């Protein structure tokens, strides 16, 4: 288990950096992390920012502009600006900060963004989160590094799935609570493991030939049929509650399925699950 201790010499009451001690992670610098979650800061003028910072968490503050000192943190790997007041202009400078180009995780969740910010400078980015903003289009994702493994754009106003074609390494895609009507442009995401599309306006399942996917959520959409999952032979969890599904069908090939939620639909009987031996013990059928 990783041990963490406060930095010596911290002169700011209630605000401290941390040093991580433990096994060295191959390929990642061993430096300090600073967690300023819920300090309600309007700026970072009174905060010391060590040059060897690896992780900076500014969650739940009142920030609207980026502190220019962040651009001089060459070892920075994780930056969280979650739950602040950043708009498009407020995060714009980050696209030019070459010193932090090694960033692996960028969290901009719960701000005031209207567009996908330019993060093309981060050539090794693994996790990108812009959920809970005011984004109406995925335009700009084409510039995101193809190293990306997790993408979160839930709770926005997106109406079309696009500009994902190059993300061959993507494993988790979260687009729940948007305005999507069609499942499309997913066929190149051959390594996708989890797809979350709950609370949209989707009427028909189209997984574009994705056979390796393990978790799918289409809760609270406008589905009337379960047809479309037949080729997802690796599927383990399927969430279809709160739709208009009238018949259980297209499940017989899903032999790895262990969780099925079809509550709050229009089903009158359970069928097409005889071969699903893993499902028998853990099925969620709240009709």
Automatic annotation (TrEMBL):
<dbReference type="Pfam" id="PF12799">
    <property type="entry name" value="LRR_4"/>
</dbReference>
<dbReference type="InterPro" id="IPR025875">
    <property type="entry name" value="Leu-rich_rpt_4"/>
</dbReference>
<keyword id="KW-0433">Leucine-rich repeat</keyword>
<keyword id="KW-0677">Repeat</keyword>
<protein>
    <submittedName>
        <fullName>Protein phosphatase 1 regulatory subunit</fullName>
    </submittedName>
</protein>
<dbReference type="GO" id="GO:0005737">
    <property type="term" value="C:cytoplasm"/>
</dbReference>
<dbReference type="InterPro" id="IPR003591">
    <property type="entry name" value="Leu-rich_rpt_typical-subtyp"/>
</dbReference>
<dbReference type="InterPro" id="IPR032675">
    <property type="entry name" value="LRR_dom_sf"/>
</dbReference>
<feature type="region of interest" description="Disordered">
    <location>
        <begin position="1"/>
        <end position="23"/>
    </location>
</feature>
């Amino acid at each position: 288990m990783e041990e963490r201790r406060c930095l010596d010499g911290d002169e700011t009451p209630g605000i401290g950096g941390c040093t991580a001690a433990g096994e060295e992670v191959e390929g990642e610098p061993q430096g300090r992390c600073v967690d300023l979650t819920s300090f309600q800061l309007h700026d970072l003028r009174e905060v010391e920012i060590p040059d060897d910072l690896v992780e900076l968490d500014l969650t739940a503050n009142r920030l609207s502009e980026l502190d220019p000192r962040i651009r001089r943190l060459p070892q920075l790997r994780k930056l969280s600006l979650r739950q602040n007041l950043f708009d498009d202009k407020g995060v714009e400078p980050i696209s030019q900060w070459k010193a932090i180009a090694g960033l692996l995780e960028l969290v901009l969740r719960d701000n005031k963004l209207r567009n996908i910010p330019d993060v093309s400078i981060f050539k090794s980015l693994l996790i990108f989160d812009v959920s809970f903003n005011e984004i109406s289009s995925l335009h700009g994702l084409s510039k995101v590094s193809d190293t990306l493994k997790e993408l979160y754009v839930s709770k926005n106003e997106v109406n079309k799935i696009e500009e994902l074609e190059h993300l061959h390494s993507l494993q988790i895609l979260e687009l729940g609570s948007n305005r999507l009507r069609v499942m499309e442009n997913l066929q190149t995401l051959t390594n996708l493991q989890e797809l979350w599309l709950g609370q949209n306006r989707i009427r028909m399942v189209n997984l574009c030939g994705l056979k390796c996917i393990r978790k799918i959520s289409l809760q609270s959409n406008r589905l009337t049929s379960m047809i479309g999952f037949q080729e997802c032979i690796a599927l383990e969890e399927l969430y279809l509650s709160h739709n208009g599904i009238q018949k259980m069908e297209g499940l017989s090939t899903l032999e790895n399925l262990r969780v099925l939620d079809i509550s709050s639909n229009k089903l009158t009987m359970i069928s097409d699950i005889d071969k699903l031996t893993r499902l028998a013990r853990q099925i969620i059928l709240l009709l």
